[in-house]
Structure formats: C-alpha cells, structure tokens
C-alpha cells in the first residue's frame, strides 16, 4: 500500500532487505500487529473502508505473506471494528477490538465469526497472547484468560498497566507492568490469579546483551593492557555492580559519528576510584551512531545482571564516566565467563567468571 513497506532482517548477516509491500497502507502503527503463525506472516492493520458513508469508521484489515513465494494474500476485513491485537490458536486467528470484544478468523473458510463481549471495562486497549488453546488478555489493571477461544473469560485485577504478554515453552507467562513511572517484568500465575516480579534476568538475556556490548561498531584505538590490573592503573574508576536498566543515549553527528550510551549500575565492589558500595553510577560506552545499533544497545538491558567497568572520568558524555575503549565493560551470567568489552591479552584469558576478573583487577 502507499506509504507502507515491509523489511526483513537477517541477524546473522546483520542486514536488512526490502520485501514486497503489503496490499494496504498501515495508517496507525500503534494498533498494527505482525506475527508468524508457523506457515505465513499475518498482518493486521486498521484503515477506513474504501466505500463507507461514515468517514469516521475504522475497520480491521487482514493479509498474509508467504516468504517462499513473496506473495501477499488479501483476506476479508473485520467489518466496522478496529483491531487492537491478535493471536493465533491452531488454524484460527483471534482478534480483540478497541472495545474489548473478540472475534476469530478461520484461514481455511476465509471468514470471520463472533464479535463476542469479554465483559471487560477498561479505558485502554487490550493485548493478546496464546498458549495452545488458552488465550490471555491484559491491559490497564486487569488480566483475563479464556480456555474456549474467547467465548468466556475469567478476569482478575492487577496493579499497574500490563503490556506485551508472552507465553514461554514451559507455559510460564511473562508480562511487563508499568506503574509509578517505571516498568518491571512479571511472571503471571493464571491459576492462582497472581503476579510476581522476575527477580533476575535469564542467562540468555545476559549473553545476548554481552554480544551487543562487544559489537558497538567502534574499533579500539589501541590494544588493551596485558592484564586487568594494568588497565585498572590506567583508568580513574573500576567498580563492579548490577545493572538497573536505566540507559541514556547521547547521539553523535550522524551514522559515522561517535555516540554514547550511559548504563546505570548499583555499585557492589570498588576496586579503584572515588565510589562507594551502594552508590549509583552511570558509565558510557561509545558506538558508531547508527540508529539501529543504538536501539539494539539500549533495549533489553538485563536488570540485575552483574557488570564490571573500567572507566575514565570525562565531561563530554552522559554519566561522567566512559568505559575504556573496547575492553572496559563486562557482564556475566552467574558463574559464567565475562562477556562484552573484555581485553584479549594473555592476562585476560582463562578468567572463569566476573569474580576472577575483579580479583585480577585488584
């Protein structure tokens, strides 16, 4: 459609590629869903109907994309309803609209059915997730589940606004809760109707974050000192801590310019410099200024993950400290080796975990 494009990203090659444009324009990205159902890409968007006397009416548009043939298929609209979110259960696409009503689309029959009220009264839109034949619906101060494809719902109240529900392979439900200007990751128990904060980041998240730190697009100006202790003598601050999730971005002059991201740490160990256990410090790393890389480096920070930084005191980057270029910011899974910007000299190899790196820096 005019003004709308689709791109695909290859994480191995780190390369974007243009795909065929969808058959309708996506006018409201905030209420657009793109998902994979195991066979095809499903796009749900919202747009005024082509021929309708009520110009204010908005309806859900539906199309599928086959990556093998590079072909889009335009499917029947959900008449006179604005789709808020969708999920797939078996061969059915289940949609919830802006009034918390649900309907299902049968891909084989190419038809919609339902438009059933959930009984939910809320001032904001709902978001859907699916686990087998079970549906989960979340929004402002509520969560609800359905075991019969949305015909009946069990609802319970939750403090805060819930976003982006996800069901893991073991059935665990994760959801983000926004409250009091902050966000936290929750595990949801649908049987007991309760939620609990996720205490620590999964190791996979730490590993992925470490890989991004290690590939900022900026080449170190010089090789790291042979040992962590030598680097510690060269810099102004060496501290261990845990990441709080707070990030500040200071962009440079363009894609080729140097930019900074400041990560906040709660200090747990002081090896050198003017800091104390319990302090909060922000340490910047430099990256190449590419907006996509900025998004990668600033998202999904594993809150509570352990980190060790070697930093210089500066005045031209957020936080007042900049990690030693290419070897000054390490993170680790619990019991795992240091990841991220870690020196590769002989005195750095063989460090079993972050505690060993801290000992080597002292």
Keywords:
23 strands, elongated, 4 helices, 5-stranded mixed barrel, 6-stranded antiparallel beta sheet, mainly beta, 362 residues
Straight-line N-to-C gap:
60 Å
Query: How confident overall, as mean pLDDT?
Result: 83
Count the helices. How many? 4
- Write down the overall geometry: elongated
Order of helices and strands: EEEEEEEEEEEEEEEEHHEEEHEEEEH
Count of β-strands: 23
Task: List the uncertain runs.
Answer: 51-55
DSSP strand content: over 45%
Using only C-alpha atoms, the radius of gyration works out to 24 Å
Helix content: under 10%
Strand order of the largest sheet: 11-12-13-14-15-16
Overall description:
With about 350 residues, this protein is mainly beta. It is about 10% helix and about 45% strand. It has four helices and 23 strands. The strands form five sheets. The protein has a six-stranded antiparallel sheet, with no helix packed on it. Residues about 50-55 have low confidence and may be disordered.
């Amino acid at each position: 459609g005019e003004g709308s494009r689709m791109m695909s990203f290859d994480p191995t090659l780190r390369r974007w590629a243009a795909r065929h444009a969808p058959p309708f324009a996506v006018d409201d990205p905030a209420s657009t869903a793109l998902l994979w159902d195991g066979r095809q890409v499903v796009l749900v968007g919202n747009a005024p109907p082509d021929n309708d006397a009520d110009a204010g009416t908005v309806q859900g548009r539906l199309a599928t994309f086959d990556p093998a043939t590079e072909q889009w298929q335009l499917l029947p609209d959900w008449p006179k309803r604005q789709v808020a979110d969708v999920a797939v259960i078996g061969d059915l696409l289940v949609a919830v609209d802006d009034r918390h009503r649900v309907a299902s689309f049968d891909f084989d029959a190419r038809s919609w059915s339902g438009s059933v009220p959930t009984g939910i009264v809320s001032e904001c839109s709902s978001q859907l997730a699916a686990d087998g034949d079970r549906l989960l619906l979340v929004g402002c101060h509520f969560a609800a589940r359905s075991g019969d494809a949305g015909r009946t719902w069990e609802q319970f109240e939750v403090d805060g606004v819930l976003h982006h529900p996800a069901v893991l392979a073991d059935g665990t439900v994760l959801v983000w809760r926004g409250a009091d200007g902050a966000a936290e990751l929750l595990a949801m128990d649908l049987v007991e109707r309760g939620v609990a904060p996720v205490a620590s980041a999964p190791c996979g998240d730490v590993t992925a974050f470490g890989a991004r730190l290690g590939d900022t697009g900026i080449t170190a100006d010089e090789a790291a000192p042979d040992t962590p202790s030598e680097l510690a003598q060269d810099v102004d601050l060496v501290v261990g801590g845990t990441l709080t999730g707070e990030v500040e971005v200071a962009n440079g002059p363009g894609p080729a310019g140097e930019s900074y991201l400041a990560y906040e740490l709660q200090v747990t160990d002081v090896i050198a410099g003017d800091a104390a256990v319990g302090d909060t410090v922000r340490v910047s790393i430099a990256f190449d200024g590419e907006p996509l890389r900025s998004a990668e480096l600033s998202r999904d920070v594993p809150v509570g993950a352990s980190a060790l930084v070697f930093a210089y005191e500066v005045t031209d980057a957020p936080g007042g400290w900049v990690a030693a270029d290419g070897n000054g910011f390490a993170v680790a899974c619990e019991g795992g080796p240091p990841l991220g910007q870690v020196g590769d000299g002989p005195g750095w190899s063989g460090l079993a975990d972050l505690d060993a790196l801290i000992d080597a820096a002292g």
